[in-house]
């Protein structure tokens, strides 16, 4: 998990300056036609960090677990990320992901095959969840227009 941790940290370090260069007005505009704004997408990525933080730690400590599904529309509506100043969202996202990189590096090897079910989905392993977290993060960073260059 050390390489995944290092890649997550690299992505955050490369992306944070790109995100900080986005202005408040631009952060409120839809990132995709008819879609969420950069603020809403970054709020969604903060939700992803929060949900996956719980999944990573609980699965590593307890083994096989079932987690509730994530209702992204309801979470977005309730939290109203579009009302939070863009620099605060960027700082929180970056700091939380640096912490998750720290957590991922410490996931016990003997727990990586722990089975996790999210909502009604098929069970997956803790290792899959951690790798999928980075894939999901990069997908949305591309939508925001802030995905860093691939590592060498």
Notes on the protein architecture:
- The chain has 152 residues and is mostly helical.
- It has 6 helices and 3 strands.
- The chain has helices at 2-20, 24-27, 38-62, 72-79, 86-105, 126-144; strands at 65-67, 115-118, 124-125.
- It has a 3-stranded mixed β-sheet.
Task: Supply database-style keywords.
152 residues; mainly alpha; Four Helix Bundle (Hemerythrin (Met), subunit A); 6 helices; globular
Question: Remind me, CATH topology?
Answer: Four Helix Bundle (Hemerythrin (Met), subunit A)
Q: SS-based structural class?
A: mainly alpha
Strand portion: 5-15%
Trace the largest sheet across and list its strands. 1-2-3
The CATH architecture can be named as: Up-down Bundle
Sheet with the most strands, sense and barrel status:
3 strands, mixed
CATH superfamily: dinb family like domain
- What is the count of distinct domains? 1
Order of helices and strands: HHHEHHEEH
Low-confidence blocks of residues: none
CATH class: Mainly Alpha
Helical proportion, percent range: 55-70%
Terminus-to-terminus distance? 18 Å
- Give the integer mean of the pLDDT values: 92
Distinct helical segment count? 6
Question: What is the element layout, followed by pairings?
Answer:
Elements: H1 2-20, H2 24-27, H3 38-62, E1 65-67, H4 72-79, H5 86-105, E2 115-118, E3 124-125, H6 126-144
Helix pairs in contact: 1-5, 1-6, 3-4, 3-5, 3-6
């Amino acid at each position: 998990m050390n390489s995944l941790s290092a890649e997550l940290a690299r992505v955050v370090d490369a992306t944070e300056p790109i995100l900080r260069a986005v202005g408040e007005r631009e952060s409120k505009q839809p990132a995709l036609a008819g879609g969420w704004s950069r603020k809403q997408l970054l709020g969604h990525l903060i939700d992803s960090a929060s949900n996956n933080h719980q999944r990573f730690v609980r699965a590593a400590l307890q083994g096989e677990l079932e987690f509730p599904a994530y209702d992204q529309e309801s979470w977005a509506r309730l939290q109203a990320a579009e009302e939070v100043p863009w620099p605060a969202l960027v700082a929180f996202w970056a700091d939380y992901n640096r912490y998750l990189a720290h957590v991922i590096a410490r996931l016990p090897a003997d727990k990586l095959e722990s089975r996790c079910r999210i909502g009604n989905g098929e069970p997956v392993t803790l290792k899959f969840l951690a790798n999928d977290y980075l894939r999901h993060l990069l997908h949305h960073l591309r939508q925001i227009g802030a995905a860093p260059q691939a590592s060498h």
